[in-house]
Amino acid sequence: MKKALQHPIGLAAITGLLLAAAWPTIGFPLLLFIAFVPLLWAEKQLRAAKASTKKVFFIAYLSFVIWNLLTTWWLYYASGFGMWFAVLVNALLMSGLFLLYHQAAKRIAPFYSLVLWVCLWMAFEKFHLEWEFSWPWLNLGNAFATFPKWIQWYEYTGAFGGSLWVLSLNAFVFYQLSKYDSQNTKKTIGILALGIAVPICLSLSIYYTYKIEGTTKEVVLLQPNVDPYTEKYNATNYDTTQDLLALASPLCTASTAYVIAPETVLAEMVPYDQFYQSTSPMLMRQFIQKQPGIELLWGIDTFNFITDPAAVKPASNAYRPGLWVDFYNAALFVNASPEIQKYYKSKLVVGIENLPYKPILEPLLGNVMLDLGGTISTKTTQSDRTPFTSADGTKVAPIICYESVYGDYVNGFVRNGAQFLAIITNDAWWHESQGHKQHLSFARLRAIETRRDVARSANTGISAFINQKGEVTQQTKYGEKVALKGKVHLNNQLTIYVRFGDYLAQLAICIATLLLLLIVIKPLRKKVLL
After folding, report:
1. What phi, psi does 90 have (nearest 5°)?
2. What is the pLDDT of residues 125-151, one digit of tens each?
3. Which residues are CB-neighbours of 468 under 8 A, at least 6 positions away?
4. What DSSP assignment string belongs to 244-262?
5. What angle do CA 305, 367, 358 make, to 5 degrees?
6. For residues 509 and 129, what is the distance between their CA atoms, to the nearest angstrom?
7. What is the rounded CA–CA span in Å between residue 426 and residue 440?
8. Residues 73-104 pLDDT 10s
9. Residues of 310-327 as b/e, b for ≥16 C-beta within 10 angstroms?
10. What is the pTM of this model?
């Protein structure tokens, strides 16, 4: 058994298991601070034995498949192919990055190769936030989402601060243990403990001194608990609106400012121009007339036909010759004003809501279904992060589902004046699994980063109120039809992270680029990095 654990394959498996065991919502994130050490040690053994690149790739791929599979297996409920695609391809990308570290470690001093590894991983996480196959679910800074008291300093660094924390301590421990010195091992443990304790103590200091202040608004969250596979598309928008208003009415008072309903809760898929003139918004306005001051923020699945070729966008879908269609996963904001404010979801789920690199892949795929839980049809997005503006000037960020995983994306709403965050989502696709729990926990990160209260309406749950410290103050149970009333504080202050965004990742990209250039230029490599 001992030999198996010391074998590169055994070490690689340990890394995968430690990473998975650290992940929200059932994991313990302290494991992250040593999770990569076994894999780094396995690579060191193979490098010393001059093993082939294939063997290094294999152990890395084993680690990352285990991690991805154990933490995101629940994607299977939405699509079996989609789950395996996400697991295997994401592990492939991570393994490619590790191979780059391996090649660097053969050519430069250990200190510089580990610095490069840290920077490359952070660059990879930033890349995963930006490209069209985006999948940032396993970015390391997300792992502390259920321990908000440890990461109050995310208001300065964002979740990338957590990634840097994890990666730098793993690199330090491996570097020190590589010296084969028993006294050095004791020193390493002491410094590791300090490296964990100091940021936590700093965070606790911020936590206990931070004051939640500001005007409050009363909010009613709706959780209709509709099965998205069987019930969702059977009801008309009129029937759904009646049901939602009946659910909200018992909790609405003269103090209620907002009634928030989930993503695509209006799912009758009629063109938006027809919806605007339909009975559903009529019912909403009748409700608002009876409850003065209430404003509705609801999700809708809708579309528009396009006949003018000049109006066709890259995301527009060909319907038939001379006719195109734009599909929208949108949020609506309805109040006493005659106009309905709209926001189009713009961080889309790969395969389900968009075909990545559509101009390239669509001609190759033709009419073939891309079975990631959806089709090759692509939703239309918008370029700006415009908050909804209430009658009294209050601004609320309409964040739709997957968008809540993107820290700097949410910052865009706050920089444009959003005073609290409204997250509308449908997590029922994953059933009763870790998926919806992890998704809720990531909303806590956004609250800390922006210091904005969060009002989260989820179709089947978990709907919740989250304060500016990332604490869940009220929540529903999963799988119940219910309305939840609470208050949100309005905040106008901008945190350092809101102002400067993912600056840590950008710095890491610069350092990684510089190191890679020095490695490529042999005279400089010998002079600087050895």
Report:
1. -65, -40
2. 999 999 989 999 999 999 999 999 999
3. 210, 212, 447, 448, 451, 452, 453, 489, 491
4. HHHHHGGG--TTEEEEE--
5. 70
6. 14
7. 11
8. 999 998 888 899 999 999 999 999 999 999 99
9. eeeeebbbeeeeeebbbb
10. 0.93
